Amino acid sequence: ADFVIFSIQTDDEAQIRRVVDGWAGCSSKRASRPTSLEVEMPSPPKRKGFFVELVALVHREAKSKLRDRGTLRARFGSTVFLSLIFSLVFFQIGSPNPADSTLVDRGSYDLQSHAGALTMVGISGMFLSAQPLLLTFASERPVFIREYASNMYSTAPYFLSKTAVEIPLLAAQVLVQWLVAYWMMDMQGNFGVHFSGSFLIAFAAASTGLLAACLVKDAKQAMEAAPGLFVPQILFAGFFIKMSLIPVWMRWLQYICSLKWGMNILLHNEFSEIAGGTVLLELNDIEEDNLWIYYAVLVGIAVGFRSLAAFALSRKAKAFYN
Fold first, then answer.
1. CB-based contacts of 103: which residues, under 8 Å, 6+ apart?
2. Is the pTM value of this prediction over 0.85?
């Protein structure tokens, strides 16, 4: 528009007349062409098959993650940094011998602080695993919508490919977290059980973040919605308040809070054989016979939320082009 106004003000009348006549000729030619409604659109290409699509998408997703070295450095760097901070604050907190705490004189063993250290590991793992998906998936969504509309692949191989690449990253992130925290905090539970419980917390939290990223418009809205998704889970983790003290009509929320079920696994693994630990487990309604239920609920939350995310994204893609 600025160029047209400038030309009208500076060119002579003959030049302006030639431009107007040329534009009129182009307009008449466009009017004589068939409209998009009159042209027969080509049929969409046939897809190559589920497994071919899955292999190609996994390969592309893996290359994309490896090339984005800045995000990987930030992801694992923040994990190491926060784990070191927590480990120094709770240094040797799990040791029954207070003399092992060389950074500060703790006087005596403190069960509540020991449980608090374990809770902080679970909470930090939840946030660290969900944040990358909240930030990055919104920018990847337009690519999916365009390729989905072009019939290049379906929703199932797309989400399975992201999950296949994401699982090793989450496992490595959780492993780094526990390699830093386990010995510095002098945790007493089995390392493998701690790792498996934290991994399921991270996997379920990532699935929750993925669902949120599919439902909102952009990454800004996803980050604004994150506190509403994850902060309430801290209340149901069992450290700040007993479940019996929460109003009955609110207790159903615990069943969709992955942190609660993951902390049940971690707390049982850490305190089942520690003096006074049985009381802590009883206060949080943690029973050894129900451990398989805790694992099953975490897997169910992760799979369920990812299925809902796939459904929501496919609906958005269909609605966008229909």
1. 88, 91, 92
2. no
